[in-house]
Structures are given as C-alpha cells and as structure tokens.
Design a protein that fits this description.
There is one protein chain. This protein has 152 residues and is mostly helical. 76% of the residues lie in helices and 0% in strands. It contains seven helices and no strands. The longest helix is centred in the middle third of the chain and has 24 residues.
C-alpha cells in the first residue's frame, strides 16, 4: 500500500502548509480510492484496493480533468481550465513517468512477441500484458489502435 501511504502523507503535509488547492485535490483522490474500497466490499472482496488499482483511478482522474480543461478552454472559461490543469499536476505527482512514443512502440512490440500474438484475435492478450506491466505509464486508449495496426 505504498502509494496509498504517499497520498496520505501528502495530504497531511498539505494540511500543515495550508495549501488549499493541493489539499482539495488530495481529498478528491482519497475519496475516489475509498469509493473503490467500498465497491469492492459490496462485491465481497477484501475491501482495499492495491497500487495497480490506485494507479488506474489516478489515470482516470487525469483523463477526466484534461477533458474538462479542454471543454472549459473551448468555452472561454480559462480560470476553470487552469484549475483543472492544476489538479492534473497534483495527481501526476503520484503517477509513474509516462512513456514516450518510442518506449510505447517498443513495449507493444515486446508484448506481441511475449504473448506470441499473430492476429487481431490476440489483441486482448497483448493489451492484458501491457496493462499488467505499464498501468499508469501509457494511455491505453491510444495504444489500442497501435496494437491493432501491428496485428492487423
């Protein structure tokens, strides 16, 4: 639960330093994690999410805020767009470094070779291998078409 502890420590530090903007975002992160914990308990699970699921939650939060910022910019609401982008920066503090295009391409090639994928029917295996190893480090929405092109 290393990631969860890092978020908790950052939350305490933000409270002590009275950094209201950072504190607000960290509370949103904590709430999202706790929501997922509760959902797991409802499904009969152990009740706490691991680091991989926390990374997935953070990735979704970043994507939501980027889309909101884009919508605000298009609507001329630059102050709201800036607030969303500030939240993205706080969330990204807890995400691993994003892979660049060359690294993503190499990872896709390695996953295809590793799974022995030969056709588009094997796309699920390749995506599962990538998600297992690179959660939080790449945008799987963008990687999907790349895998499809290499297998198709």
């Amino acid at each position: 639960m290393e990631l969860r502890e890092r978020i908790g420590t950052a939350l305490k530090d933000a409270m002590k330093s009275k950094d209201a903007e950072r504190l607000s975002t960290l509370r949103l992160i904590n709430a999202a994690i706790k929501d997922k914990d509760i959902a797991l308990r409802g499904e009969g699970g152990e009740g706490t999410v691991g680091d991989a699921e926390v990374l997935a939650i953070l990735g979704r939060m970043v994507k939501q805020r980027q889309e909101s910022a884009r919508a605000y910019e298009e609507g001329g609401r630059l102050e709201l767009a800036e607030k969303e982008l500030n939240e993205v920066r706080v969330i990204e503090d807890f995400l691993p470094r994003q892979l660049d295009e060359a690294e993503v391409a190499a990872a896709v090639d390695a996953a295809i070779a590793e799974t022995g994928a030969g056709s588009i029917r094997d796309m699920g295996k390749v995506m599962a291998a990538l998600k297992a190893r690179f959660t939080g480090q790449m945008d799987f929405g963008a990687v999907g078409p790349m895998v499809k092109a290499k297998l198709g």
